[in-house]
């Protein structure tokens, strides 16, 4: 299923449990007490805790934990469509499907399993999926937890169809924050973005950092490999690294929209923020036999971390 690639008991590093609907979940642990939980419903990371046991991902108290409805929170896999810019339902169907554990996946990079506990998941289209989106594919997802608590997701999508196909993609990542009014994002300043609240109008970011005073739904184009989310009250910084994902989506529904969502509390917008590594503006096209890889790495550090360090880190990412 997955293992810990050091002198660390494989059985202790990963465990299969079931939720109250009988759906399998994989619990990953590292030697220092950090953990991650992945549901086979949607291939969705539903928990990521640091060594102190603090939950780093947001999940709504009103989230619906019953297939085929996707759960509001964690890290959702949005494929083969992000948002509603296409013929499929919002964010595609991958997040609504039951994935399987991939017992014998093709090898990844040589260092992708070193010092990590991990699980490999696999999704293939059903007959119903092919009626909605007539393209055959294999979607392999590896979720890994490192010794230092970093969380990494690697998606590999292969075209096993006879014709090319195109798709958009995002890791829809719900971060837990103390107070959205005390949060800022660094690394996206001066970039062009599509304002999804204004019919995808193309604008340019003017601020030194992104802060929040109202609803926001933006797609930042050609964004850097590393951005930071600084939570002043918790003195915590999330470092978000990505590869193969040219865009960054930033979303918070704020008060008015929160009240329209059945699976989201009226005031929960205050304690969450979505920052997604994505490929949205220009869909990815795969010829028959071709494979695409998109990688997301999440780190949570004390807020003494500064953006100059991000730039240094991104050179080795």
Outline the structure in words.
GO terms for molecular function: glucose-6-phosphate 1-epimerase activity. It holds the Pfam family Aldose_epim. Its EC number is 5.1.3.15. It is an enzyme of class 5 (isomerase). With 317 residues, the chain is mainly beta. It has helices at 10-13, 127-132, 254-258, 307-315, and strands at residues 14-18, 24-29, 35-39, 44-49, 75-78, 100-101, 116-123, 137-146, 151-159, 165-176, 183-186, 192-195, 201-204, 210-211, 216-220, 226-231, 236-243, 247-252, 272-286, 291-302. The protein has a nine-stranded antiparallel β-sheet, with helices on one face. Strands 5-10-19-18-15-12-13 form a seven-stranded antiparallel β-sheet, with no helix packed on it. Strand 3 and strand 4 form a beta hairpin. It is globular, with a radius of gyration of 19 Å.
Task: Please tally the β strands and state the result.
Answer: 20
The secondary-structure class comes to mainly beta
Mean pLDDT: 89
Distance between the termini: 26 Å
Approximate shape:
globular
Rg computed from alpha carbons, rounded to a whole number of angstroms:
19 Å
Order of helices and strands: HEEEEEEEHEEEEEEEEEEEHEEH
Q: What's the story with the biggest beta sheet? A: 9 strands, antiparallel
Instruction: Give the DSSP E fraction (strand runs of 2 or more residues).
Output: 35-45%
Q: Number of helix segments?
A: 4
Instruction: Kindly report the oligomeric state of this protein.
Output: single chain
> Low-confidence segments, ≥5 residues, pLDDT <50?
2-8
Helix percentage range: under 10%
In order across it, which strands form the biggest sheet?
6-7-8-9-20-17-16-11-14
Keywords: Isomerase
Pfam family, one: Aldose_epim
EC number: 5.1.3.15
Family: Belongs to the glucose-6-phosphate 1-epimerase family.
């Amino acid at each position: 299923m997955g293992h810990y690639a050091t002198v660390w008991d494989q059985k202790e590093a990963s465990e299969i449990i079931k939720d109250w609907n009988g759906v399998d979940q994989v619990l990953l642990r590292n030697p220092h007490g950090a953990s991650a939980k992945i549901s086979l419903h949607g291939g969705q990371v539903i928990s990521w805790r640091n060594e102190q046991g603090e939950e780093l991902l947001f999940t709504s108290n009103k989230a619906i934990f019953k297939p085929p409805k996707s759960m509001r929170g964690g890290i959702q896999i949005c494929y083969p469509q992000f948002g509603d810019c296409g013929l499929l339902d919002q964010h595609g169907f991958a997040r609504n499907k039951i994935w399987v554990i991939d017992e014998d996946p093709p090898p990844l990079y040589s260092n992708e399993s070193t010092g990590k506990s991990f699980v490999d998941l696999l999704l293939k289209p059903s007959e119903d999926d092919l009626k909605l989106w007539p393209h055959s594919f294999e979607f392999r997802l590896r979720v890994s937890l490192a010794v230092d608590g970093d969380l990494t997701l690697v998606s590999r999508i292969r075209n096993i169809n006879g014709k090319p196909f195109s798709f958009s993609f995002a890791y829809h990542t719900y971060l837990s924050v103390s107070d959205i009014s005390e949060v800022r994002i660094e690394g996206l300043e001066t970039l062009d973005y599509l304002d999804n609240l204004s019919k995808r109008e193309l604008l340019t970011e003017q601020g030194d950092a992104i802060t929040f005073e109202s609803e926001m739904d933006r797609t930042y184009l050609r964004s850097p490999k590393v951005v930071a989310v600084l939570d002043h009250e918790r003195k915590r910084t999330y470092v978000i690294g990505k590869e193969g994902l040219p865009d960054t989506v930033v979303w918070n529904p704020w008060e008015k929209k929160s009240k329209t969502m059945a699976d989201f509390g009226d005031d929960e917008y205050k304690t969450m923020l979505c920052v997604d590594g994505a490929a949205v503006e220009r869909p990815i096209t795969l010829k028959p036999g071709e494979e695409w890889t998109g990688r997301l790495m999440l780190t949570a550090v004390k807020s003494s971390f500064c953006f100059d360090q991000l730039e240094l880190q991104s050179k080795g990412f």
